[in-house]
Design goal:
This is Beta-hexosaminidase. It comes from Branchiostoma lanceolatum (Common lancelet). InterPro entries: Beta_hexosaminidase_sua/sub, GH, Glyco_hydro_20_cat, Hex-like_dom2, HEX_eukaryotic_N. Keywords: Disulfide bond, Glycoprotein, Glycosidase, Hydrolase, Signal. The chain is α/β, with parallel strands linked by helices. The chain is built from 21 helices and 20 strands. Strands 1, 2, 3, 4, 5, 6, 7 and 8 form an eight-stranded mixed sheet that branches. β15, α14 and β16 form a beta-alpha-beta unit. α4 packs parallel to α5, α6 runs parallel beside α8 and α13 packs across α14. The radius of gyration is 28 Å and the shape is elongated. The two termini are about 10 Å apart.
Length: about 600
Amino acid sequence: MKLWVCCVLFVFACQSSFADWVRQPFWYDDARRDKVAKGTVWPQPKNIQTTTQSLSLDPEGFSVVTSDSAANSADCKDVLDPAIERYRGLLFWIPADARVSVSGDSVLGRLRVTTSGTCTKYPNLDSDESYTLTVPASGDATLSAQTAWGALRGLETFSQLVYEVDGKHKLNVTTIDDEPRFPHRGVMLDTARHFIAVPYIIQNLDAMAYNKINVFHWHMVDDQSFPFQSATYPDLSGKGAYTQDNVYSPEDVRSVVEYARMRGIRVIPEFDSPGHMQSWGQGHPDLLTSCSPTSIQQDIYHLGPANVARNSTYDFMQRLFQEIREVFADEYLHLGGDEVHFQCWMSNDEIQQFMQQQGFPNTTEGFAKLEGYYIHRLINILKEFPKRTRGIVWQEIFDNNIISGDFTIDLDTIIHVWQWNNSNFQGIQYWDELPQVTAAGYRAILSSCWYLNFIDYGRDWPKYYECDPHNFTGNAQQKELVIGGEAPLWAEWVDATNVVARLWPRASAVAERLWSPQNLRDATAASPRMEEHRCRMVRRGIRAQPQGPSYCKYEWNQANNVPTTSGAQGIMGYVQQLLLLFSSLVLTFGLW
């Protein structure tokens, strides 16, 4: 018995001593110290003043409360109450058995959240996302915003100020006055080349919220598949989806829109036409133009772009758009308009006859007029809806206007600039396109330099970080017309196995470029914050890919898809098991 007692005492004595030792920095902690920040914010706030004075948070005693104005507004309360509960889970991540008491520390006990403006049910392009956040040396921290959307951004910032030191949750005395540089900050995801199931879309929405990205551009359908399940035209997905398991029901869409809304994210669907419609023709072949081989394109598809000569095409689009408008809440609908090859229209007698009736010549200029005619009619359809609805189009629609000299597209239509000129694509440089778009009075969003589907060896986020939407020659009024940008991820080589890792943290570079001040341009200086932010996302369950040799204390666990601790805490567990095994051997074989 004495031997058994001695063994137990020895085990616990060794465990206690090792626990004290294991909290000392390892060589790789020292080597990594300058590479990883602690308690920094991504994207960087507009104005931030922080100190080295730290406060502790007590997971059992800390609270977040709303002011009377926020609590009494139904729309504010609807968003803020779940957000506060959600962020409470994000604030405290140290496992309970690894936490150290904060007794005797300077402790922050409460965060007060105040909204003073009007809260809307859904975020929109004009939503105010500004906020101020104060973490004082004593007393309550305060978060003030005009809207619930600003309060959400402030809660995210507050959660990022918290860092871990020796088993305690800490943050520094800090003052922040923040607002986004651009109102439209988006990620575009293609779910037509590969079907991306709703849970992965949801995970991407979480990552977007962690990066203050506020637009999910859902490129839902394309030539390859039509996964949107339409009640009005069930054959669109019935015959156009890959399988009937690879579809988004109206309930799926509503769940994505609602999940996004609760995180201050707009969902803008894209139903691209008149090109990229092969999947539409599987169930509705009369919607498309019948093509014949020509000397220009011998291998032309049998069915090409939309048949823009038929009134039935516009009746079809009117009914479909009406359904889309009811399912999706945002006032904007992306109409597409890119990459329409005119050879099919050139080969079709019905189209040729229609062009003659309209006075369009059988030339590039005439076909540019023809596509402009089609898009103009679609925009007029949107304008007739009871709920305000406006369009976004790819830059070809504007370029066709230049070719045809026919600027009939309404100025409240947003031009989406996407082309570039390098080894991957031979197009117009965005710094040449944006001056023309804005000089004509159109608002623009940029994607040209942020194509995340192109990957490089090594870390490539710095090149996204360096691209700026205002990098073009123009006056102040023209710069104001550029309302933001989007990072597209086309899915030819992306599906559920790699979509989240391909996006993050590379899209984080775009997030900071679109939120933070323009003079914040040094990717090297931003790297320690990026490394901390990447590990923070991993800890929160986002499968963000590494940016070079390093480690996160809470690594991604491939086995059960949840983060797991690594490093010192994991070593502690192994040593404890070894000590217990040694004790068992002593008791069993009488080694003492």
